[in-house]
Amino acid sequence: HTPGLKLAIPSTPEDAAGLFWTAIHGDDPYFILIPKHIFRKQMQVGSVPPVPFGKAKIIKEGADVTLVTWGNCLELATEAANLGIADIEIIDLRSIVPCDYETIAKSLEKTGRLVVVYEDNRTGGFGQTIVSEIMSKPEWFNLFLSPPQVVAREDVHIGYNPIYEYAALPDIDQVVAAIKVVME
């Protein structure tokens, strides 16, 4: 909520490295929030291309539902897509300020359905900002075949114990339920 700052939340080690490269070589102030699951992933390090802020990545092409996510929730989105309940297009935002609304809108032209999955609070979370921005433009609002859905953490604290952490964060059942709602 601070004008002028750029904010990224990468989902993969490659994107984290590419975003850091861009931030180090840029002139603007940047925040890169690293989800802890990235530190647990092992990978071979080779050449990592710079990743521009404000450019989303289409992880999987689909025709039925546009699922927008970032950070840890990319794993939930991929798991949901692998269930085969719908042909899901997965968009990893990578950076949320600036946000790549154009990529979301292009995907909505194909699918007409939107599900946003993220770990932050439901109230005042960035997923609600995405829905608000897309719905506020008449040319994008008319793309919807069903009401967009948000899957987020309810407005509760996350407990320190992993049991409480997983109980508070979005899960695959919530993602599947949201996909079913938009497919009705």
Can you tell me about this structure?
By secondary structure, this protein is α/β, with parallel strands linked by helices. Helices cover 40% and strands 20% of the residues. It is globular, with a radius of gyration of 16 Å. The protein starts with 5 loop residues before the first strand and ends with a helix. The strands form 2 sheets. It has a 5-stranded mixed beta sheet with strand order 3-5-4-7-8, with helices on both faces. Helix 1 (13-25) links the parallel strand 1 and strand 2. The mean pLDDT is 93. The longest helix has 13 residues, at 13-25. It has 8 helices and 8 strands; from the N terminus they run βαβαββαββαβααβαα.
Order of helices and strands: EHEHEEHEEHEHHEHH
> What is the end-to-end distance?
35 Å
Structural shape:
globular
Question: What is the alpha-carbon Rg in Å?
Answer: 16 Å
Number of strands: 8
Q: What proportion strand? A: 15-25%
Biggest beta-sheet profile: 5 strands, mixed
